[in-house]
Amino acid sequence: MLALITGASSGLGVEFARLLAINGYDLIISARRKDRLESLKKILEKKYKINVEVFPADLSDVNDVLRLAANCFTKNINILINNAGFGILRSFNNIAGKENINLINTNITALTLLSQEFIKTQKRGYILNVASAAAFLPGPLLSTYYASKSYVLSLSTAVNEELKRSGKPISVTTLCPGPMKTEFFTIAGASKEWATATPRTCAKRALRAMFKRKPLVFSDNLIAISAFGTKFLPLNLLTKLSYKIQRSKFM
Ligand SMILES: NC(=O)c1ccc[n+]([C@@H]2O[C@H](COP(=O)([O-])OP(=O)(O)OC[C@H]3O[C@@H](n4cnc5c(N)ncnc54)[C@H](OP(=O)(O)O)[C@@H]3O)[C@@H](O)[C@H]2O)c1
What architecture (CATH level 2) is domain 2-248? Predict the structure, then answer.
């Protein structure tokens, strides 16, 4: 049994790696920070007697994404977890073009290419795509991040339905976490962080849903209810509320 996890150098990705290792999965772990991946490999191989392959890659570079796919999908992989992602907390006109391209490539392009290659090359298995509660509303001051996560939710849900109808035993589960204390907020540029779930409980819940081939899972019940609630608010009001929430992260 083999799983490929992107963004496995910190936060949620480390928890996915740990939980799958406990369950006897060999792993391919990827991210840019090779030292982090190497130390995780050492810990997991020693503790759980599994094999871990480290594959450093910058997923904002499409060539690296293709290199990762070429290395992995000739193997028999049971699980793909598209977890790598980041946000930029800043007004849209203050984000450099290259920063936005890097975000779109990491959060959208890499996830799309890896999902597609998995489906094309593997006979069966599970894909877990990490979106966010941000997928359910616009996010002024984190606009490209929110938009990228809406894409992840929409694409993953659509492809899951296609696969179900085709009878191919591959499912795509979309995970929508609420705020968690990882490196995410610091990297995004927020000075305040809050959480509705820990990365560990979120990863557990997500894997349980993935193995049941559920299309959608949330980090916790509060986020599930909030996402449902967005359906009943006018877009205009939702966007104003969202602005206030993002604004508070600067203070
Ligand atoms: N924390 C939250 O509040 C929250 C809420 C909703 C959704 N999420 C989503 O959850 C996922 C995991 O985030 P996290 O909370 O665990 O944050 P994190 O601790 O910052 O982890 C992000 C991971 O993505 C990797 N990554 C970022 N840019 C990359 C790139 N260009 N190429 C390759 N890997 C890259 C990072 O590795 P390197 O830096 O080593 O490359 C790291 O392993 C993300 O998709 C995020 O959007 C997080």
Answer: 3-Layer(aba) Sandwich (3.40)
